[in-house]
Design goal:
This protein is elongated. By secondary structure, it is α+β, with helices and mostly antiparallel strands. It has helices at residues 3-21, 33-36, 93-118; strands at 24-28, 44-49, 54-63, 66-71, 74-79, 83-91.
């Protein structure tokens, strides 16, 4: 394989991974915050407090009965009793399906154009 085609394949793979990573959405948790935060480490959570503040907390972790982390580079600690809703990013199967379908359609259209362009006219 030539260097340019290897580079193109690598770039295509990176682009696909970036798209698949974007196929996530914030999803409400149906469990208390302390239980949701015991699951595997998350990069971020989004909360709604009882006074209707919406915060995205980076590097969230439990510290006793408090959710600790960072909001825009500032350390925060919010008592769990003040958290009304908690959302986490999860894969969105609908978006992923549409992305894969769109990529397949684009590849098929490109292949069709290539075939039509290379067939000699009679």
């Amino acid at each position: 394989m030539r260097h340019s085609s290897r580079c193109s394949a690598c770039m295509s793979s990176l682009l696909l991974m970036a798209y698949l990573n974007a196929c996530t959405s914030w999803q409400m948790q149906g469990v208390p915050p302390e239980r949701a935060l015991q699951q595997p480490l998350r990069k971020a959570v989004r909360i709604m407090t009882v006074d209707n503040r919406r915060l995205e907390i980076l590097r969230p972790h439990l510290r006793g009965a408090t959710l600790a982390g960072q909001v825009r580079g500032t350390a925060v600690a919010i008592p769990l009793r003040e958290i009304r809703d908690l959302e986490v990013r999860r894969p969105d199967t609908g978006r992923t399906f549409l992305l894969v379908l769109g990529l397949a359609a684009t590849a098929a259209a490109g292949l069709l154009i290539l075939v039509v362009a290379t067939v000699p006219s009679t």
